[in-house]
Task: structure prediction
Amino acid sequence: MTTIRGATPDDAAAIAIVQVRTWHAAYAGLLPQEHLDRRTVELRTAQWSGRLQSGEEEVFVACDPRGTVVAFATGLASSEPVDGFDGEIGAIYVLPEAQGQGLGKRLLRAVGAALQAEGFQSAWLRVLSDNTPARRFYEKLGAEIVCETTEEIDGFAYREHFYGWRDLSKL
Ligand SMILES: CC(C)(COP(=O)(O)OP(=O)(O)OC[C@H]1O[C@@H](n2cnc3c(N)ncnc32)[C@H](O)[C@@H]1OP(=O)(O)O)[C@@H](O)C(=O)NCCC(=O)NCCS
Result:
């Protein structure tokens, strides 16, 4: 049985491993390889240590029966004005071998419930327009398309879709 729990600063390295492995699997061919390679486990661990200690984000992890982190998701106050949304989904990553087992849905619902408990009504997120599997996942969970935009990453222009739930209780 895989369990979902709130993350602690001790989870920084485990979250970084999930992020880097999943990121490479999902984004190879979508983003420049150099961009992927620069974001190492060491770099991500340092970033997550700071983020987890700040307490500014709701971070949940999914752990397999041995206690190994296999997925995580985060939520926070909206980092930019997006069409009336007050909350934001910061990240969601499920290791390739753990995908398709309902963990993404359980994690997103845990984040949504935590945001609601803090008083947030809604949440948006950004996704590369070419990341079709993730878009289908968000759509399956009832997210609506909020807008499309172009983001510059390492000098290249990428299309992004913003999705959102205006009522987190529907997530
Ligand atoms: C996208 C991601 C978070 C989904 O997590 P997951 O654990 O694989 O998804 P779940 O098993 O919880 O799926 C939940 C529902 O979405 C559906 N779903 C998931 N992926 C789907 C897809 N590619 N196409 C259609 N439906 C999909 C499932 O069938 C399930 O439906 P159900 O509730 O009727 O059973 C995960 O695959 C992932 O980490 N991908 C790589 C990283 C990434 O792209 N992250 C998002 C960055 S913006």
User: Anything to note?
Assistant: The pocket of coenzyme A is lined by residues 22, 26, 92-94, 99-105, 127, 131, 133-134, 136-137, 140 (CB under 6 Å). The longest strand covers residues 144-153. The radius of gyration is 15 Å. DSSP finds five helices and seven strands in the chain.
